[in-house]
Amino acid sequence: MKPNSKLTLIGFVVLALAFAPKVVRAADPLSSWNDGKAKQSIVAFVEKVTKEGSPDFVPAPERIATFDNDGTLWAEQPMYFQLLFALDRVKALAPQHPEWKDKEPFASLLKGDVKGALAGGEKAIAEIVMVTHAGMTTEEFERIVKDWIATAKHPTTGKLYTEMVYQPMLELLAYLRANGFKTFIVSGGGVEFMRPWTEKVYGIPPEQIIGSSIQTKFEMRDGKPVLVRLPNLNFIDDKEGKPVGIQTNIGRRPIAAFGNSDGDLQMLQWTAAGAGPRFMLLIHHTDAEREWAYDRTSHVGRLDKALDEAAARGWTVVDMKKDWKVIFPFGGK
Amino acid sequence: MKPNSKLTLIGFVVLALAFAPKVVRAADPLSSWNDGKAKQSIVAFVEKVTKEGSPDFVPAPERIATFDNDGTLWAEQPMYFQLLFALDRVKALAPQHPEWKDKEPFASLLKGDVKGALAGGEKAIAEIVMVTHAGMTTEEFERIVKDWIATAKHPTTGKLYTEMVYQPMLELLAYLRANGFKTFIVSGGGVEFMRPWTEKVYGIPPEQIIGSSIQTKFEMRDGKPVLVRLPNLNFIDDKEGKPVGIQTNIGRRPIAAFGNSDGDLQMLQWTAAGAGPRFMLLIHHTDAEREWAYDRTSHVGRLDKALDEAAARGWTVVDMKKDWKVIFPFGGK
């Protein structure tokens, strides 16, 4: 290219920019949402509470929005991802535990019989969770979760778990924050299982993550303070526990709450019972093709009573199949 | 005044403003601090961690600063203010409890014998705390605290309790926030006793208050969800409990921690043990004239082991008498 033609090209670009249309249309912050009742109800609520001088105006510090995680921000099938993490950890730890070969639920699990291992019900699950989640320091557990989440793949999609988040919900989180909301996770999952990756994936910092927990104990090891994770439950952040967790950690009532199962019902009831404008939303898993379809009889993320209450009280229900243009950032499963 | 002279006056003001010196000296954000080692160490730390490109730079989301409350942000003599609240509540509730006339610790208390009432030690205090802090909903308790804090007066100064906050610490909180820090309270006091007033007084929102707590229970009353405060301890946010409370609620380690007693030692140790630049500060109550002087043998806010460790490890120790120009916004006591 000769200097002259280069100059001409630059001149052309400058001219083109100078005459480009000045009015650029604002990009739709909820572009993965189809234009239906669900999307409209979200936008109407946000516009209402952020309009200064309106009777529905809510000052920014009180714009607290709480989100369930499993089935609301990321998928939860064929079972909770934290349980898949625990199963992977059992396999990784097995060489240090030769006794597991003859001991349920570990014996079945190590033979690849997940169903057999989980046949022991809540007791079996609790045992698996405790051996994989306790007995190390908080820093060691954080490292274990970080390593797993960076590499482990979902059993049916083959995707990283952090890719199995809902694109429309990522947009909703960002939209709310752009409108002065403070977004929190209030999940039945373990709080320390979420914190290592939620800031990067959802833009929600560790101090805005509320979840279930086991006890920890402060102690000195070689003159260095550590927090050791103990095999005792501390708090179950599910059902009646969600409003308790919200009050303990946030200390004020959300004005908007988002869930997908009966485990979120009390959080939505608690949110709805406050004064002033309120917004309650349930995600209904209706898309067997792009995600999964389940509700009233599902073992994971059962949505039954909460679906009835949403209908009776006029809460927003998202029909994933109809309301969402895409499910995951990579599309459907 | 004639129109003319009015115009002349306006003209003069306009001229005066126009010729006013353009370079205004930035006000000192820590103007109540004398220029000594304590103030210098604070400023040096803040400048270091906020200087982009420097090896000590800390990104804003990680600038977590935790503050004890009693004796660090507000006074704690002649006894913890929350205990004075509980004593006031016993008096207010006495008409509904005729049986208290013959039952310790209430009998002594109602006769005005506080010393006698507290002679029963921790058990007596726990009884007083539970009857005054439990048995109502969270909303009812919030209202009780708000009413008390708005009207109750300190027994020796006659000031509102919210006036008995340390002016230099209010400046420090604001200075840290202006430099991108997120400020938290981590107190042995009750979390729901602090939240109703800490946002207004310290600029710290409810979700950044960590404290001791009793259990709460979600239930429906006349179709309305409430959280009922139960007479059972949930968490003691003191000593070894402070790092536990920090991890549970914040989920990341502070880079700066501020306390005044042995109850804060583990919080400072936990803060000090992180990687990168760290700042630990203890307030030493040395001013019997303007506030109170106490340390190694005090029943309230004992400062003994932590004072030794601060000396050994080079943590900043504030000498209230020497380092603070004023103690309270209204001056000294």
Structural class of chain A: alpha/beta
The biggest beta sheet of chain A is recorded as: 8 strands, mixed
CA radius of gyration of chain A: 23 Å
| Overall helicity of chain A | 40-55%
Total number of helical segments of chain A? 13
Strand content of chain A: 15-25%
Overall average pLDDT of chain A: 93
Helix and strand run of chain A: HHEHHHHHHEHEEHEHEEHEH
What characteristic shape of chain A results from the CA principal axes? globular
Return residue spans of chain A where pLDDT drops below 50 for at least 5 consecutive residues.
none
Q: Tally of extended strands of chain A?
A: 8
Question: What does it look like?
Answer:
The structure is a homodimer of 333-residue chains. Chain A has helices at residues 3-18, 37-50, 81-93, 106-110, 114-118, 121-133, 138-151, 167-178, 191-202, 241-249, 265-272, 305-313, 320-323; strands at residues 64-67, 182-190, 209-221, 224-235, 256-259, 279-286, 293-294, 316-319. Helix content of chain A is 40%, strand content 17%. With 333 residues, chain A is α/β, with parallel strands linked by helices. The first copy, chain A, contains 13 helices and eight strands. The A-B interface holds A 61, 64, 138, 182, 191-192, 195, 199, 205-209, 213, 216-218, 224-225, 227, 234, 240-241, 243-244, 247-252, 266, 269-270, 273 and B 61, 64, 138, 182, 191-192, 195, 199, 205-209, 213, 216-218, 224-225, 227, 234, 240-241, 243-244, 247-252, 266, 269-270, 273.
